[in-house]
Amino acid sequence: MAGFKTLDDIGAVSGKRVLVRVDLNVPVADGKVTDATRIERIAPTISELSGKGAKVILLAHFGRPKDGPSAEFSLEPIARATAEVLGRPVGFASDCIGDKAADAVAAMKDGDVLLLENTRFHKAEEKNEPAFTEKLAANGDIYVNDAFSAAHRAHASTEGVAHRLPAYAGRTMQAELDALEKGLGNPVRPVVAIVGGAKVSTKIDLLMNLVKKVDALVIGGGMANTFLAARGTDVGKSLCEHDLASTAKQIMIEAAEAGCAIILPADGVVAKEFKAGAASETVAIEAVPADGMILDVGAKTVKSVTDWIDRAATLVWNGPLGAFEIEPFDHATVAAAKHAAARTKEGKLVSVAGGGDTVAALNHAGVADDFTYVSTAGGAFLEWMEGKPLPGVEVLKR
Ligand SMILES: Nc1ncnc2c1ncn2[C@@H]1O[C@H](COP(=O)(O)OP(=O)(O)OP(=O)(O)O)[C@@H](O)[C@H]1O
Ligand SMILES: O=C(O)[C@H](O)COP(=O)(O)O
Asked: What residues bind ATP, as annotated (predicted)?
């Protein structure tokens, strides 16, 4: 790999403490991991280092905790899921710095694997504060970043630590960058992007540049509601960030100038409650009841999405079209995923999809293996698509 060192350059690691930044921000329901793809993807790096006798210390975040440590955002259940995937014990320390982490690291034998508690339990992580970074780095001799999907964050564990220790890219980091370059480095046009999901505020800005890179942008999921509201459509009680209306309007202007078509839902599946088995109906997008939530796009929109997939030579997809975890709000995502998979199998489409929940949705549809490439990254993947330097990758290039 050009530009930075990988595990091929790491030399002897036996007995060394290797801090490995991984992405364990996996979908969880009722305390159980519902899609283990991100864990499976980091297994090769962990097994390789552990097999060579390193003490493998995993650093990761989980969710977006706002108020310090909490059971809701603890990585402890994910340590168990990681052990299942690796087929070997994974220790757990209830803090990522300080005595708890240091004691757990000191007790490790060569080849052991230890997961440290959620780095985001410390506010200093996201601020990339030097004193915190130093405390994280104190537990390692070498740093490996295998979290491509978190590389768009300039946080202490994704960026800061790489300045303090010899730093290398892990196998998944390497494979993701290689695969994205191969699939999308010089994409065959027309390029159609589908963006959905729920992380509206952290992803909407990315669309400003994305519309200059693609020929059509299909907006679904929670993301669509902010655009619909900006256009004056009443979205009732749907997930919507009304304060981002001016950003959404500007994106639509930029898209028109760049010649990128924007496709918004024409109909929606609405319910009054966000739960399995809730009564739902499909309505025209202008007829969403004031107390209703749009939880999926409707059949008319699905037809428009599949028509755009038919026109595409390259498809880029991040974010489900609906709240696919709850039936029947998985219909549109499953239909679009199956359609894209079939076109790919026919050799008519290069399909690249990414994101923690997007991968889970493709697995739910049973078609993840039929896409050209499935990245574990969502936001990082979109930023890479925009051509933006990713801090977690750039620092490895020093
Ligand atoms: N209309 C909707 N209303 C509410 N939630 C929605 C809607 N459509 C999709 N979602 C939710 O969006 C979530 C996924 O969004 P998200 O932006 O996190 O995608 P992702 O693929 O995980 O990307 P990343 O890896 O960047 O997090 C799912 O949990 C899904 O239920
Ligand atoms: O799920 C993701 O996309 C990554 O883990 C990054 O999570 P974040 O958007 O909360 O930084």
From this structure: 203, 325, 355-358
